[in-house]
Structures are given as structure tokens and as C-alpha cells.
């Protein structure tokens, strides 16, 4: 029996102005799977993450979580309409998102950055939120920095706090949008190590990245986006050593 994907897009389209960024993309990830997404700038790879995270509405197509369409409701005329922000916030709980920029609040220390979503959006008591935050900060190796402010942390440390902030909501899937691209080279590995640990613990992850060594080592499948479509999807060994498509071979020749 075929299993239902944990997260799936069907015929996803998105246009900004006259630029069609996504051209009917079908994309799916199974529970516990890690997918790495590669592609040139402007190919649509970051856009699809933002749509799956319910940060922007789709133009057409569907996003399904465990087979159920999310981000929309059915209007009186039977057509899909976007959910109000309050309901979207609830649905986003199941989908963690980590961005290039860390987006931490400068006026809050590490602990309060991590608990904010729990207490303000989800109504969790402060005591429970602190307990959950402490466990997640321990998980990403930041328990000794709970009372530090973002300005006192390196970029790698800030990104690990951002990962903890997403994990504390106990999402079913984690989306990473080039999480190391804003870091100095010597700080990249500390973030990739946390992500690799998450993968080993069974976290379902979609990772937009330029880190091909990480993709090759950790991903179950690698996808190449270009001009709003998926050019190729394959297990890492096949993708990197014997790609089927000329566009994939050309892309890999440039990044190598």
C-alpha cells in the first residue's frame, strides 16, 4: 500500500508581477525523509518553502499535510479561500521554518526568543514554555547561552537559536532556507552538525542549500529546481555522479 506523503504540493503556481516563479510544481516528502533542494538564484526553491510554510498564499494548486489540504478553507461558492491569519498560525505549528537570516528579536535574550511563539501565539504557560525551550536549547548546544542577547552571539549560535525556536513548537517537518548562507565559513559546520543530528533522530526535513557535501551525506533525495520547475530528483549518489538531465550536469559543473 502506498503511504501518504507527510507534506506535498500539487500543481503549485506562484507569480510575482509578470514573473511566474513556480510553474505547476509537484513535490512531496515522506515521514522521516530528508530532501535537499539545489538550484540557481531565482529558480523557485525558496518560494516553494515559503508557500509550504504558509507564509504566502498560493496562486493555484494545493499544499497537503498528511493528505489534508492546508492554508485554505472552502467558501460558500465551493471555491478555496485563504484562511484567516489566526487559523494559519495554528496550521503553521506543524511546519517549522528556518531562514537565511536569523530573525531573532534583538531586545530579547535567547530563552525569551525561543518561548515567545509558545506563550504569545499558542497560549502555553510560561513554566511549560521555559521547560520546553531549555530542552530544545540543550538539543542544539545552546543551553549555556540562554541569558545572552543576539548581539552577544556568533552567527552560527544565532542560527542554532533560530532552529531551537522552530523545534520548540514540535513540528512534523522542518524547512530550511539556505540556513548557512549568511554565516562565515568557519561557522557553517556547527549549524550543519545540528541539522545532521536532527536527520539522524528521524526529523523530516526539506533543506534548500548550496552545501553539496551536506546534501550528499545526509539527504535521502536531492532535487534540482530551475526556472520554476523540478528538473531532476534522485538519490544523492545518482544525482551527483550520474544525473540524467543535461541541465543537472551543467549546474553541477558550475558548483564543483
TrEMBL record:
Residues 7-252 form the ABC transporter domain. SUPFAM superfamilies: P-loop containing nucleoside triphosphate hydrolases. Keywords: Amino-acid transport, ATP-binding, Cell membrane, Hydrolase, Membrane, Nucleotide-binding, Transport. One of its GO terms (cellular component) is plasma membrane. Its EC number is 3.6.3.-. It is a peripheral membrane protein. It is an enzyme of class 3 (hydrolase). GO terms for molecular function: ABC-type amino acid transporter activity; ATP binding; ATP hydrolysis activity. Belongs to the ABC transporter superfamily. This is ABC transporter-like protein. It comes from Rhodococcus coprophilus.
Amino acid at each position: 500500500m502506498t503511504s501518504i506523503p507527510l507534506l506535498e504540493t500539487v500543481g503549485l503556481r506562484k507569480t510575482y508581477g509578470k514573473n511566474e516563479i513556480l510553474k505547476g510544481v509537484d513535490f512531496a516528502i515522506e515521514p522521516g525523509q530528508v530532501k535537499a533542494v539545489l538550484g540557481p538564484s531565482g529558480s523557485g526553491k525558496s518560494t516553494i518553502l515559503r508557500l509550504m510554510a504558509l507564509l504566502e498564499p498560493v496562486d493555484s494548486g494545493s499544499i497537503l499535510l498528511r493528505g489534508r489540504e492546508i492554508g485554505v478553507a472552502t467558501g460558500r461558492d465551493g471555491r478555496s479561500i485563504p484562511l484567516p491569519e489566526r487559523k494559519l498560525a495554528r496550521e503553521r505549528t506543524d511546519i517549522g521554518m528556518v531562514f537565511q537570516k536569523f530573525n531573532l528579536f534583538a531586545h530579547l535574550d535567547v530563552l525569551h526568543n525561543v518561548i515567545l511563539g509558545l506563550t504569545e501565539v499558542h497560549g502555553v504557560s510560561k513554566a511549560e514554555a521555559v521547560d520546553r525551550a531549555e530542552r530544545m536549547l540543550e538539543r542544539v548546544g545552546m543551553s549555556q547561552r540562554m541569558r545572552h542577547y543576539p548581539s552577544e552571539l556568533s552567527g552560527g549560535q544565532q542560527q542554532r537559536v533560530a532552529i531551537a525556536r522552530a523545534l520548540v513548537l514540535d513540528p512534523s517537518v522542518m524547512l530550511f532556507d539556505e540556513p548557512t548562507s549568511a554565516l562565515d565559513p568557519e561557522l557553517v559546520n556547527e549549524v550543519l552538525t545540528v541539522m545532521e543530528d536532527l536527520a539522524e533522530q528521524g526529523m523530516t526535513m526539506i533543506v534548500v542549500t548550496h552545501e553539496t557535501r551536506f546534501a550528499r551525506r545526509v539527504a535521502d533525495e536531492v532535487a534540482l529546481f530551475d526556472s520554476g520547475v523540478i528538473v531532476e530528483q534522485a538519490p544523492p549518489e545518482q544525482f551527483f555522479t550520474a544525473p540524467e538531465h543535461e541541465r543537472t550536469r551543467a549546474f553541477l559543473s558550475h558548483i564543483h
